[in-house]
Structure formats: C-alpha cells, structure tokens
Design brief:
By secondary structure, this protein is an alpha+beta fold. It has seven helices and ten strands. Strands 4-3-2-5-7 form a five-stranded mixed β-sheet, with helices on both faces.
C-alpha cells in the first residue's frame, strides 16, 4: 500500500504474505527501469492468487539484461507502461508483508522509486528478505542465489529469471528455510537482518555484521 513512510525489514515469519519479483533493464535502482513485475499471494503458506505483467520501459533493453532474463524489446513493444501496471500491483499487494530474494538491496529500491515518481508517496509495506535467511539457515552452501537454494531443495529451476517463476520458487524456498531456521537461531543484525559474527578488534572482541562491508553495524560483546 502507499504511504508516507517506507516499510521496514522484518525478521520473523508470517503465514500470510505476498512474494514479488522484478526484472529490470539493469542493476541501478536510481536509473534502470522495471520491465516485468510479478507477485504471488500466500495465505497460511499456500499460494492463492498471482499477478504478472511485462512492462514497456520506453527505452531499449540492454543486451546484457536480455541475456539474463530473456525479455526483449519485441516482447514489451505492445505492453503497458509502468504508470498503468504499477497501480494494479499496489492494489494486488494491499497491506501484505512483502517477501523476496535480495529485495532489501534491490527490488524494494525500485518499487520505492516507482511509487515516489508516480504518486509522490512510497510503498509502506513491511518486508522480509530471504537472502539473509538463506545465508543464516544454509551456511553449507557456497552461494545463496535463488537457483542455488532451489536446487538444494530439489525445486525445479526451469524458467528462472522470469519474475513469476522466481516468485513461485522463492515461496517454496521460504517455507522450507523457515523450517531450517528452527534448528539454527543466531544473533541477528538489527539494521539489515544479517547474522552477527564474533570478531577480534583493536579493543577486544565485538559483534560485527556478516554483510560487511555493505552493512557496518557493530556492537560490544
């Protein structure tokens, strides 16, 4: 939903939520454009509804972006622009907690910018990022991309990097990782949700965020 304050990052599981994912023309939230937005509504752990739309960004899609997500200029040529699709997305998510993979650093920044440019407001839904959850619950994995987690749980990765397929994969991974988290409950960073690690410094031991240098949170042991 729209409001005057951005939603906050949550760390606790909720049974009812909406998973969302974006495909974009690049990795810069302050410059690049959304070319696909999808979401799946979840009630008591089960998918109950879906939303998905390609978006004409009004600019050429770089070759590098097409190589990743398979979305070409021809595919979006006759699709609606963001000002048509985004209000429908906002209506679909309602007041739900949003869930997504790496959304704290990426997707949320895109939808915050879209809301601010289109409506002069922001998306105020709280959200859960499954990337730090994966790093916390599956430390045995060398990489924590969505396809890595899906492969670990033997979830099909066919169609990966298209928004709706990624939503469906992530929903299953999220529910399975929550079961893992029951076995593994570390000390968490209050700023980004990453795991806090004991480190040795000039003045002795301290807690430092495992997301360093992206997050520089520390506290005394």
């Amino acid at each position: 939903m729209l409001g005057n304050k951005r939603g906050k990052l949550l760390r606790d599981y909720v049974a009812n939520y909406t998973v969302f994912d974006l495909e974009t023309t690049g990795i810069r939230p302050d410059y690049d454009s959304i070319i696909e937005i999808s979401a799946v509504k979840v009630v008591n752990g089960n998918v109950t509804d879906t939303f998905s739309s390609l978006i004409n960004p009004g600019r050429r899609i770089p070759y590098g972006a097409t190589a990743v997500n398979g979305i070409s200029d021809e595919m979006v040529a006759n699709k609606p622009e963001l000002d048509i699709v985004f209000p429908k997305f906002v209506e679909f998510i309602g007041k739900d907690v949003l869930v997504g993979h790496n959304i704290h650093s990426f997707d949320m920044k895109f939808i915050w910018r879209a809301a601010e440019e289109l409506f002069g407001q922001t998306v105020s839904n709280d959200y859960i990022d499954t990337l730090p959850i994966a790093r916390r619950c599956l430390p045995q994995l060398s990489h924590h991309k969505l396809v890595d987690i899906s492969s670990y749980y033997r979830i099909s990765t066919e169609g990966a990097h298209r928004a709706l397929n990624d939503c469906m994969m992530n929903q299953q991974c999220f529910e399975l990782m929550i079961k893992e988290s029951v076995k593994y409950s570390p000390k968490l960073c209050p700023r980004c949700g990453g795991e806090l690690k004991r480190r040795n410094g000039r003045y002795g031991e301290f807690w430092g965020c495992s997301e360093f240098p992206a997050c520089r949170y520390t506290e005394n042991c």
